[in-house]
Amino acid sequence: MMKLTDYLLACGVQLNVRSYKVHFATYSDSSPLDAFLANDFQEWQEWQRERTWSREMILSLIKVGYDRWLFAGVYKVEGFVQKEPTLFKYTTLLLPGQENLLGRIILDYHRTGRQPYRIGAENGGDLLISEIR
Asked: 124 with 17: CB under 8 angstroms?
């Protein structure tokens, strides 16, 4: 199996492997999958309860089953505004060159712990592609 980061780079997605966080998006107040299907995932992801996006980029995955994750894009963090003490609105940009990859890559990955954000490994870590639809 191929690492997701290697595949994205081979496809021309300009992921900065030295400065990204992986977002394991799961249901909180609303469904990230519903937002993705409604073409609203970027907006859904930009609202956070903490200063979550401390790296230059976000590699986004949406939980679609037990240990199964859907690739939802790589986003560049452009800034944020604190709206309330525990509410932050980020501005992000979907990187070009991945339009035909969104929603087509599935990973089998067992997330340990409950933390939905993980600093990305420069070598791509253990995010392995299980299928491309």
From this structure: yes
